[in-house]
Description:
By secondary structure, the protein is α+β, with helices and mostly antiparallel strands.
Amino acid sequence: MRVYLVAESAGGRMDIDGFNKAYTEYFQDQDRNYPSRTVIQVAAMVNPGWLIEIEATAAK
């Protein structure tokens, strides 16, 4: 999983704490193997209203 987070306008840093909280809430089962992830801070997205973009690859 590759995640792009837009930096906050006030502090200039991405909200990694908020992302980690959401990730933990979604992937909360301790008996599962969770996807590896890379989180990258970006200045902006193509759509100015977007704050996050997630790329995921799944295989069976």
